[in-house]
C-alpha cells in the first residue's frame, strides 16, 4: 500500500506497486516480532541476608533486560535493607506467609503489571542466572507453558541427599503413571512460566503450600504443556533450607501425597502431550 500526496489534491491510497506493499508488510512483521518480552524474576526471601546481594548482582549482570521482584517474607534479619540498597523492587509481607504464598504474591504482581514471563528464582544462591536465561529462551522458542530447570535430566554433578533423591524418583514415577509424562526433577522450583500460567496461578484460591510435583500434575492434567531442560545448580552458601531437619521433610511428604490424591480425584484429565 502506498500513500501519495499530490499538490492541490486530497491524499489518496492506492495499490501501485505490489512489491512495495510486500516490503512494508515485512517491515511491520519484523517490528512486531522485535517487541521485547517483559520478564520478571520472582524471588521469595526469608532471612537471606548472607546470600541475597550476590543473587541480585548475578541476575543484573547476566540477565540485564529482566526486572527483579523480591518478596521479603517478614525476614528478621537485614534482607529487606540489602534488597533496597541494591535498588531492587521489594514487597515486604507484614507477617511470614511462607514460601508458596510469597511466590504467588510475586506472580500476582506479574499478572497485574503485564509481564509475559516469570522466572521463579531462589534467594539462597542455588539457582544460576545464566541457566535462568536458558529456561526463558526455551519457553519463548517452544511456546511451552512451564519450563523446569532440571538437576537430574543429565548428570551435572549436583549432590543430592539419598532420601531426597528417593522422593524425587517416587514423584517422577507418579507423574509418569497418571500424566504419561516424564519429569526427572518434579521438586525443582527453578521454573519459567508464560503469561497463560501466570494468569492461572494468580487467580488460584487454593495455591498449594508446596507447589512442586502436585502442581505439575494438576497443570498437566489441565492440558498445560510442561517441559524440562538440564540446568546447573549450586548448594546454598549460607543459611538454613526450608526442608531442613527431620520433621519438615516428613510433613512435606505427607502434604504432597494428600495434595496429589486430592488432585487425581478432583481434576479431570484433559488431552496432554506425552512422551510415548
- Helix tally equals 9
Strand order of the largest sheet: 5-4-3-6-8-7-9
Helix/strand order: EEHEHEHEHEHEHEHHEH
- The percent of residues in helical segments reads 40-55%
What share of residues are in beta strands?
5-15%
Write out the CATH superfamily name.
Spore Coat Polysaccharide Biosynthesis Protein SpsA, Chain A
Total number of domains? 1
Largest sheet: 7 strands, mixed
How would the global form be characterised? globular
Task: Tell me the radius of gyration.
Answer: 23 Å
Cα end-to-end separation: 49 Å
- Beta-strand segment tally: 9
User: What structural category do the secondary elements indicate?
Assistant: alpha/beta
Assigned CATH architecture: Alpha-Beta Complex
* CATH secondary-structure class: Alpha Beta
Contiguous runs where pLDDT drops below 50 for at least 5 residues: 1-6, 272-276
| CATH fold topology | Spore Coat Polysaccharide Biosynthesis Protein SpsA, Chain A
Instruction: Estimate the mean pLDDT confidence.
Output: 87
Amino acid at each position: 500500500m502506498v500513500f501519495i500526496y499530490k499538490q492541490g489534491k486530497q491524499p489518496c491510497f492506492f495499490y501501485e506497486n505490489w512489491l512495495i506493499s510486500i516490503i512494508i508488510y515485512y517491515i511491520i512483521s519484523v517490528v512486531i516480532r522485535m517487541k521485547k518480552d517483559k520478564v520478571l524474576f520472582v524471588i521469595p526471601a526469608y532471612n537471606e541476608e548472607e546470600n541475597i546481594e550476590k543473587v541480585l548482582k548475578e541476575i543484573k549482570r547476566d540477565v540485564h533486560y529482566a526486572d527483579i521482584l523480591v518478596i521479603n517474607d517478614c525476614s528478621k534479619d537485614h534482607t529487606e535493607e540489602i534488597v533496597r540498597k541494591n535498588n531492587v523492587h521489594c514487597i515486604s509481607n507484614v507477617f511470614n506467609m511462607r514460601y508458596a504464598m510469597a511466590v504467588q504474591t510475586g506472580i500476582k504482581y506479574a499478572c497485574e503489571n503485564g509481564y509475559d514471563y516469570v522466572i521463579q528464582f531462589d534467594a539462597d544462591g542455588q539457582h544460576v542466572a545464566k541457566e535462568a536465561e536458558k529456561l526463558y529462551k526455551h519457553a519463548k522458542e517452544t511456546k511451552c507453558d512451564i519450563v523446569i530447570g532440571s538437576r537430574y535430566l543429565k548428570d551435572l554433578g549436583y549432590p543430592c541427599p539419598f532420601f531426597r533423591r528417593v522422593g524425587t524418583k517416587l514423584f517422577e514415577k507418579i507423574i509418569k503413571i497418571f500424566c504419561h509424562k516424564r519429569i526427572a526433577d518434579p521438586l525443582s522450583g527453578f521454573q519459567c512460566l508464560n503469561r497463560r500460567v501466570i494468569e492461572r496461578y494468580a487467580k488460584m484460591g487454593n495455591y498449594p503450600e508446596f507447589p512442586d510435583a502436585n502442581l505439575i500434575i494438576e497443570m498437566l492434567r489441565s492440558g498445560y504443556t510442561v517441559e524440562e531442560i538440564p540446568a546447573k545448580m549450586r548448594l546454598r552458601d549460607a543459611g538454613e533450607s526450608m526442608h531442613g531437619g527431620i520433621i519438615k521433610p516428613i510433613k512435606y511428604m505427607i502434604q504432597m501425597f494428600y495434595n496429589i490424591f486430592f488432585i487425581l480425584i478432583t481434576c479431570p484429565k484433559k488431552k496432554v502431550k506425552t512422551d510415548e
